[in-house]
Write a structure and sequence with these properties.
Length: 297
């Protein structure tokens, strides 16, 4: 999702010499394969958008894979970027790097100030290691490696898997299937009270290209929308966009996850960048993508 959005944004701004690899084409956990990639392509700029990702269920069940795979992906890409003299590297993290009970909204300086949310701790630790790796290579070798921490993302080419997807695409699938099957009720994990911030993938891509062109500092930056909604409000909006007219049932036997995750993107916004796509518009666009990608199969 993020990689394809970045490619669209680069192309829209006139960049043509864009090198990409899918996970099937290049196993980024394989050090020798990454070395061959750098040797063959000799890129000038690298964006580390690859990661093993998933929702609460996947993060909690596949804890070893989420730690190992993400560490290997970023270790290989960042270290070999140094070895091959890459001019600039942008590492993408996640809002889950922040402590579970950190003050809201989440400021960059809250990193490592408390305990992480247990369900996604392995993924968060890997992403924190990536940030610190970029900082260390800058400090020791003078590498122009920067980091950006996106909030919760959604949009074209999202993962709509019924078990291993994030909350927004998972709900799109649930409400679509409920509507097409004529169901009267849809179950939503948790009690609906947790608050989440969502950024459309193309807005993120626009921000990242902006940072590649304009930002060269050590400190990582949050990239968010600037406001959040409850899971209940999110579910109601998705149901309305899709046209599901039944009721919602909140399953309190399932975990809520972190109570709130609103990122403070003041540092980024103060440089002149702001998002353009509101949540309802983005959900409508994401649903059209779902219909093309999944429902049409």
């Amino acid at each position: 999702m993020v990689g394809s959005a970045i490619v669209r944004e680069l192309q829209s701004q006139g960049f043509e010499n864009i090198v990409t690899r899918t996970s099937k084409e290049l196993d980024l956990r394989d050090t020798n394969a990454v070395i061959r990639f750098y040797e063959d392509e000799r890129p000038q700029v690298v964006v580390v958008a690859a990661a093993k990702v998933g929702g609460i269920h996947a993060n909690n069940v596949y804890r070893a894979e989420f730690l190992y795979d993400n560490l290997m992906i970023q270790n290989n890409l960042i270290h070999q970027a140094y070895i091959y003299g890459i001019k600039k590297l942008l590492f993408l993290g996640s809002s889950c790097i922040y402590p579970k009970l950190a003050p809201q909204p989440l400021k960059e300086e809250y990193l490592l100030s408390g305990h992480l949310e247990s369900t996604n701790e392995p993924y968060a630790i890997a992403k924190i290691a990536g940030i610190k790796m970029c900082e260390a290579y800058r400090d020791q070798y003078g590498c122009n490696f920067i980091s950006a921490m996106p909030t919760n993302l959604y949009g074209p080419n999202d993962n709509y898997h019924p078990e291993n997807s994030h909350v927004l695409p998972a709900l799109i699938r649930k409400f679509h299937e409920a509507k097409t099957q004529g169901l009267s009720e849809v179950s939503v994990w948790g009690d609906g009270s947790p608050m989440r911030e969502f950024l459309y993938a193309d807005d993120l891509a626009n921000a990242l290209v902006y940072l590649l062109l304009n930002y060269n500092e050590k400190d990582f930056l949050n990239v968010g929308y600037g406001s959040d909604v409850t899971i209940k409000e999110l579910a109601e909006t998705i149901a309305d966009v899709i046209g599901f007219e039944g009721s919602l049932a909140f399953d309190t036997t399932k975990p809520n996850g972190t109570p709130r995750k609103l990122m403070d993107s003041t540092r980024l916004f103060s440089t002149g960048w702001t998002p353009k796509i509101d949540l309802r518009t983005g959900i409508a666009l994401a649903y059209q993508d779902f219909l093309k990608q999944v429902a049409s199969r």
